[in-house]
Amino acid sequence: MAAQPAGKRAFTGGDGVGFYLVCAALMVAILYLDLQLPLGIAVAILYSGVVLLALWSSNRRFIIVVAIVASLFTIGPLLHKEPIDEMSKAVLNRCLAVFSLWVACYLGLQKQVLEEKRASILREREKALEEVRVLRGFLPICASCKRIRDYQGSWTLLEKYISEHSEAEFSHGLCPDCTKKLFPDLFQKTEESHPDN
Questions:
Q1: Fewer beta carbons within 10 Å, N or C terminal of the chain?
Q2: Looking at the domain assignment, is residue 162 inside a domain?
Q3: Taking Cα atoms as reference points, which of 92, 87, 74 lies closest to residue 33?
Q4: pLDDT category, 102, cuts 50, 70, 90?
Q5: Does some domain include residue 71?
Q6: Could you read off the pLDDT of 134-168 as tens digits, one per residue?
Q7: What is the distance between the alpha carbons of residues 161 and 155, in angstroms, rounded to a whole number?
């Protein structure tokens, strides 16, 4: 099985009209079943499954609409059907069903937000890794002029090559040995004025 790219879902078919129709058909089927059964049976909990299915959609409005319609379909039969002896249990069952579907909706939406943040962070990480340039391996360098041979065989100044292939920049100065070699008089005066250096 091929690895999926960072931030992508395994199933991404939740935004088509067909998907919306499947969710709507399932809710209508659950409503029909609920209207056929006695009021005390907790059929309304099945709407939580439709909300979970709707979470495959990246359209947050659709998910919230499914949760709202499922809540209305859960409470609707209480008003439509004849009251039963244990009406308090039926109301409690319906309230628990509405609570569970909204918990599922909230947690699912939070998961989507976290997935989007994770995908964004991974994209930023990939971008940062692309920007990091590190010199590796052997660099052929001239022992005399200190030019570096690149992959095409051209010889480039050391400073230019390193600047083009890394984020390093150069400032120029002279080390004490080169100062002594190039400017012996100046070096001697400096030594006389600062003998402890």
A1: N
A2: yes
A3: 74
A4: very high
A5: yes
A6: 667 777 888 888 888 887 888 988 888 888 877 77
A7: 9
Q: Which of 85, 103, 131 is the last residue of a domain?
A: 131
To the nearest whole number, what is the mean pLDDT of the chain?
83
Structural domain includes residue 196: no
Domain extent for 185: 136-190
Handedness of CA 57, 63, 66, 71 (dihedral sign): positive
Residue 185 has phi, psi (to 5 degrees) of: -65, -45
Choose among 132, 112, 9: nearest CA to 60. 112
Which one is predicted more confidently, 177 or 196?
177
Residue 197 has pLDDT above 60, yes or no: no
Instruction: Judge contact between 127 and 95, C-beta under 8 A.
Output: no
- Asked whether residue 79 is assigned to any structural domain, the reply reads yes
Pick the closest to residue 142 from 161, 127, 158, 121 (CA basis). Answer: 158
Whole-number Å distance between alpha carbons of 97 and 144: 82
Over residues 2-31, mean pLDDT: 73
Q: Are strands 155-156 and 148-149 parallel, antiparallel or unpaired?
A: antiparallel
Distance CA 165, CA 156 (A): 12
Q: Do 24 and 109 share a structural domain?
A: yes
